[in-house]
Amino acid sequence: MWDFDHCDPRRCSGKKLARLGLITELRVGSRFRGVVVSPKGTLVVSPADKEIVGRDGIAVVECSWARIDDVPFSKIASPHERLLPYLLATNPTNYGKPWRLNCVEALAATFYITGFDQHAETLLSSFGWGNSFWKVNSPYLKRYQTCTSAEEVAVMEETIIAELQASYEESRREKEDAARSTEDLLVRNPNHAMPSDDDGLSSASEGDVE
User: Fold this and answer.
1) Distance between terminal CA atoms of the chain?
2) How far, in Å, are 97, 136, 155 from residue 165 at the CA level?
3) Bridge pairing between strands 61-62 and 35-37
């Protein structure tokens, strides 16, 4: 882990993992030959990275999303920089936000996608909310695990996003239809309109005529 001290140490997942001895810190400028999860990557993590991860490990950048532009990514060298595909954060700071994973989530996601589920679970078990990451993201992670290359993962990601968009549009249409139905119930049915006073008087007058 490259740590740029952007985060509150009490809430920083990377620092907690370091305190627990589950990860080590890297010097800025030092070269790392494993997979580096970085927004500067050009390929997404895929099962094809399993050999690299198994041999050389994974590294992440501990920084604030709000200060991402301050990170000197040019000094973080690796021949295997990778992006993460669509996943939802479940950490307390960014819960429910796509792609806003913190360090432990990024590490766990990479381990899951590359087939090291036990490593992912070990890291997440150190956090009270850790179990929710798999519960929320397992439908996506399982589909990424079926791919064989970064290209296939990218296509799967596009498919997932398209499905989510279609589901959202369908849900919105159903809500709009339900709202219109409710409005219709509030409108008086003209077939059941009550007669006016004038209609009553007219009927009575006509009834008196023999």
Assistant:
1) 103
2) 15, 17, 15
3) unpaired
Question: Mean pLDDT across the chain, nearest whole number?
Answer: 84
What pLDDT digit, counting tens, does each position of 176-195 carry? 777 776 665 555 555 555 55
Chain centroid, CA 62 distance in Å: 19
Cα–Cα dist 9/56, whole Å:
27
Structure tokens at 150: 């970064």
| The one-letter amino acid at 192 | H
Q: DSSP 3-state assignment of 86?
A: coil
d(CA 186, CA 82): 56
Burial of 48 (0-12, 13-18, 19+ CB in 10 A): middle
- Quickly count: other Cβ atoms within 10 Å of residue 38's Cβ: 21
Which residue in the block uniquely carries the two structure tokens 């990557």? Answer: 41
Higher pLDDT: 93 or 177? It is 93
